[in-house]
Design goal:
Blueprint: H1 7-15, H2 23-34, E1 40-41, E2 52-54, E3 59-64, H3 66-69, H4 84-107, E4 111-116, H5 123-147
Helix pairs in contact: 2-5
Amino acid sequence: MTDFLSPAERSDRMSRIRSKNTQPELALRKVLHRLGLRYRLHGAGLPGKPDLVLPRYKTVVFVHGCFWHRHSGCKIATTPKSNTQFWQEKFEKNMARDAQKAIELQASGWTVLVVWECELASANKAQATGERLNETIRQLDQKRASRV
């Protein structure tokens, strides 16, 4: 099956895909802020530029798109029918880069958490995911404090 868009149209469409301030990221940020967590955005000095950096908790959060980062078992993580080899290679590189950046962050003492796009698809899901993340972050902080 061939692409139904011209190369110029495909290029235009792909250029509109953002890596920062996406709808899922904004939804999560809103919930976490309401729950009292404070964070920095797009950790430019950190490996992988995490979407949210919580310095107080030495924790970073990546909000991954299910398609681009291959959320296992997710219906959004489909593989295009045209140019399949290109896409498979791209997805493999994305996943390898994600794993490498997580290793680098962990080696620097950061806790790495990943939230998937599909977990933030509605206001209710975003709220539940934010509450779960808040609980996880605070539990990790308590464990860290008890070791000291």
